[in-house]
Structures are given as structure tokens and as C-alpha cells.
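Page 47, continued from p. 46.
Same chain as before, 383 aa.
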Amino acid sequence: MFKDKLWTALLRHPATGWMNPGDAALPELRPGARLLWCGTGGALLAAAALVRACGDEAAQGHWLALDSSEALPVALRPSDQVVFASRTGKTLETWTWIGRLRSLPGWDALEQPPLVITRDDGNPLAAWARAEGWRLLPIPADVGGRYAAFSPVGTLPLAWLGRDAQAFLQGGRDVAQEAPQALGHWGARIWGMVETLHEGYLAGIQEWVLLPYCRRLEPLAAWWAQLLAESLGKMARDGTRRGLTPIPAVGPMAQHALLQRWMAGPRTLGVILLTVAGAGDPERLAVPEGCPYPALAGLQGAQILQAQAEGTRETLEAAGVPVVHWELEALSERTLGELMMAWQLIVALTGFALEVDPFGQPELADGQKRTLAKLGLPGTTIS
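Result:
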């Protein structure tokens, strides 16, 4: 009954268009061109996560995230593809970079016009794109910023990488279809995680670490952190403050830097350990004489990484720290779509379990208004 109640509450909410994403209708992008992505928060984090997870070394060097009002040295190249991304079309950082890029000498020499990702609702960014004759890639009206991974925020970077955006979308769709009846691999994981987060919260576990043992998933942990923080840190209807605090990390660095706190500090924390089958260097090691671990000779980096992950899990469990361990079969467009849809569902359902609305972030309006006032620009919010 509890599961049915949560699922019904989710379906009744008007901000759930992300549960059934449409096919990607994307422009052709020039292979090898730099992608200058002007956006922040929900208009950036999913894109950055997918570029890091799916892009090779060359792609990483051609990806430039312009996510802060802080100036960065940017020299435009004629082949650059510029993207302006903002769900509301009013994000201060995005408009800062619009003003900055337009003043650069290479702006008028761009061979491809900028692309704009926003809601097609007449907002300032959408209106400007229309006036300039630029391609507008819409974020659906029933999709919030941090739930926008299955909009052009996620699919455009995959297309730029030459990867399969449709496989990413299909992975998400399949998970959304499995979830209501807890079917399949992901359906069971989703409800198990909702139960773990909810029961943990009632028992005082209000901090959760996402610990991927894969450096290519480090930006995904940042995406996950926003998803949890903005969705679950809310005031309930009875006036109580509720929420979970996400802690993004990456192994094995975190086991050296943070494991002591997790094991011996206050018992308010759980760890979600994420591994990828075969992650790590497949080459076999050749160690020099004098190495304190001569048995490393002949081992693969992937074997060492797996041992580190398993050792951390066993250590945490022995200390009584709640641990959930998920393993991905590979890093692919499909598995990333499955994983990201699963977490969007987990977070939304957990919000209803905690009796808060997992969509919207009303408390941010005050800070946004104060920022505008300090700039002499009083007016509407800017998220």
C-alpha cells in the first residue's frame, strides 16, 4: 500500500514529464568542434556527467563549461559550437556569458550559430533566440531543471560526442516502465533504495555519500548531489524541516580522505558504493625491485580498484555504517540512462515518503532576489 501511495502521488504531480522522454530531435554538430556550454546547475550538471562518462580524452579537451560569472580566458574559434542553456531563460550566469561572448572578437566569425536550450514559453532567452533565428531545443514545460537529463541538456552532449542519444533515452524509458511493479533489475533497486533512504531517515541517517569507484563518474556524483539536495531539503506541511544531505565523492581518493569520518564519526551517515565492471587500467603491472607489494606484479589496475572497493565496503559494514553497493555492467549510453532515471525516480518517490514536494525549490527565491537587488536589478527570480 505504501508503494502504491507513493507511485500515485508521483503520477499526479504536474512536473513529471521526464518519466516518458520523447525521441531526441537534435541538430547535426561538427565532429571535433569545441562545445562551449553556458549554463549552470540543472542546465549543466547532467551534460557534464555524460561528457565525462562517455567522452574520450580528445572530447574532454574540447568541452568547456562556462558555469560561473567568474571570468575565464576564452578565445573564440570559428568552428566553436556555443550553447546557451537555462530552463527559465533568466539564469544570471548564462546571461553573464552571453554578454561576455558577444563582446569577443571572434563572435561574428562563428561558422555555426549558437544553440539555445530553454523552455519554449517566451522567456527572455527563448525570445532572443527566436529574434536571432537560432535553433531552440526546448525543455518540456513539465520538466524541472534538475530532472532535465532526458531533455536536450543530456542528449545534445551525447550527439556532440557521436554517441547514441536514443539508447540513453531508451534506457531511461525502460527503467520508468519497470518501476511501478518493482520489475526487473532496476525496478527492485529503486524501491529498495527508497525504503533504505526513508527508513534510514527515521533512524537518524540523514547524510548519504555517493562513492563511485570510477573517476569518469565523478561529475555524475555532483549531478546526484543537486538532485538530492534541492529535491529533499524542504519544509513539510506540518512545518518541520526535513531532508537528506548528499555528499559526492570518488574512490579510492575518498577512502584516504574521508573514510575515517565515515567510520568513527557520528552515526548519521550511509554510503552508496557504485562500481563499474572492468573499470580501471587493464594493463598488467610491472613493479620495480623494492616495491613493498611485490605481489602487484602481473595484476591489472582493474583488479586493484575492485579490491579497494570491496575492502571499503567490508570495512564500512563491519563498523555498522549502512552500505548499498550497485555495480554497472559497463559505462554506456544505455546504462547511464538507466542509472540516471533510477535516481530521478528514487529521489522523487523518497520526497513523497518524507511528505515533501520533491519538485521546485521555493526557498531559493530569497537569495536570488537579494542578488539582483545588490546588482541594482530588482525583479523576478533568476534560477
